[in-house]
TrEMBL record:
Keywords: Phosphoprotein, Sporulation. This is Anti-sigma F factor antagonist. In the phosphorylated form it could act as an anti-anti-sigma factor that counteracts SpoIIAB and thus releases sigma f from inhibition. CDD domains: STAS_anti-anti-sigma_factors. Belongs to the anti-sigma-factor antagonist family. It comes from Paenibacillus oleatilyticus. Residues 3-117 form the STAS domain. The lineage of its organism: Bacteria, Bacillati, Bacillota, Bacilli, Bacillales. PROSITE patterns: STAS. Signal peptide: none annotated.
Amino acid sequence: MSLQIELEHYRQTLIVRLQGELDHHTADTVKTRMEEAVMRGNVNHIIMSFKGLTFMDSSGLGVILGRYKQITARGGKMVVCDLNPAVYRLLEMSGLFKILSIQDNETKALQSLEVAL
């Protein structure tokens, strides 16, 4: 299965919606598109929605960590939301929960960033 990537700018937040599999085949594409969107737009924060994500491996963790470093270097925050149990467990085991904010859905993620709806 492939990966669908949807990027949306909402105020100064980049919302990234992934559907499919985030693995070594698709990680570079996600990384590149997110980097370009952050550099091109007026982006202070990133929300990654994994609502349609069916699989993620360590390459996906690398994408998340790299974009986390990129956005925090700019003084921003990163939030992940809509995690299925398998992805939640992978993030938990990797220790990324210690640095990432986790929310139930995009609305709560936006609220946590204090971006008015």
